[in-house]
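Our consortium's second objective concerns turning raw sequence data into structural hypotheses that experimental partners can test. To show how far this objective has progressed, the report includes one record in full. It was chosen at random from the queue rather than selected for favorable results. The single chain below, 495 residues long, was entered without modification.
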Amino acid sequence: MMKFTEISYKLLAIGCWLLAIVGSSCTDIPENPTFLNQQPSIYPDYIGVTIPADIAPLNFNSADEDIDCMDVIVKGSKQGELHVNGEWADFDIDDWHALTEQNVGGELSFTVCIKKDGQWLKYQDFKMFVSPYRLDEYGVTYRRIAPGYEVGGDIGIYQRDIHSFQESAILAECVVPGQCMNCHVANRANSHTFNMQMRGSCGGTLIYKDGKQKYLITKTDSTVANTSYSYWHPDGDYCAFSTNSIHQSFFVGTGQRIEVYDTYSNVLVLDTRTNELVLCPLLQTDDWETYPAFSADGKTLFYCTAKPYNVPAEWNKVKYSLCKISFDARTGTYGDHVDTLLNARVLDKSFTYPRPSYDGKWLMYNVTYCGNFPVNHPEADLWLMNLETGETHPLKDANSEDTESFHNWSLNSHWFVFSSRRENGIYSMPYIAFLDENGQAGKPFLLPQRNPKKYYLEEMDSYNCIDFTNEKVQLDAREVHKRVFENKREQVKIR
């Protein structure tokens, strides 16, 4: 039996170890700080952003690597206060939620003190604005992928609870090894209706509706390729697709690393009830039609189209116009003419990736110098069109000096999520921004993380095809594996 004195020594050793941990942590309170007439340099740059109530805490680090401690006091303009002290601003989730809820339509004021080389420094206060508009979706989905250029690898489709820091895999590459999947495309944030493309030896189109999966072969004798980019009709019966032959070329000695382009593409609609493709001669031309998207009421199909060129040699001549055609879901028929909303030849720009707001008011799209794959264009910006007046403008407060792409809307159409390479020009990272009634964007904020500097500076993945989801996606990954590798795909037909 262990003697009392041995137990005492062990307890003493444990106590000393705990004291050492506490003593080494940052628990100082600012005393007589030196005031600096400037705002603190923090990572991420959350100064002046507009946020929704109940979002995950916008924790931040000092941009200075060499600090001893950080002390932050947050006060609500209506009520409430938080105080944190440590290596970075790490707010309790419940306390943060309570403070943002108390200050809906108001402001949060941050007082930051930083201890460096044994001296406390106090900075000018900065603010965040708590929007009166909610963002009650469960979270966001995205494809995490290293910025490489091969099929397979460590690719995964993930979902993240935006009210906490919980991330989970929807489908990881280990479930379908050797295959490449794109991010699932949901029907207006509906976690129960979505599709995704599989590329590789067992490629196909996965359709998921109401808990049921089916795996389709979507190339026919009447179409040029398998389906690719997609967008759901609001009633969930139809899904629009483009059929593309996608290629990539690499640059040497220029600021741009890669160009992704098509050698042909068309647009069509799949009736998911019958597995039939509904074609239209106006969308099956020798021009390159791509990026279809249904309007909020489902009566209009937006898409992009370009005149063919000899690519890749003439890659910088390819410019896409933004067009629309009517669609009748009751009869499954198209209109008899195409309207051009933005003419690439006249405006000498390329307009791609249209995404209509769910309230029917706006159309957000990418503007680049050329091409149809904006994520690889440093000049890619987000623009907004008023669908009632046709007026357009850049979202200047959301854009940056680098790439903005892969944008999608919240259900109330007052928030949008997108990928941006503003951090380093290489990795696409997830941002959320507010949009007011006049179509003006607030300053975007990087998707919050518990320790953002550690997470994002050590993260080696890009975030692509990011979108909101109203509930957590419950996909049976075993069933996906079975359908992919049993290779029992259903062949679609032409209506």
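The partners drew two points from this record. Confidence is low (pLDDT under 50) at residues 1-24. The chain has two domains: 34-130, 139-490. Both points have been shared with the crystallography group to help prioritize constructs.
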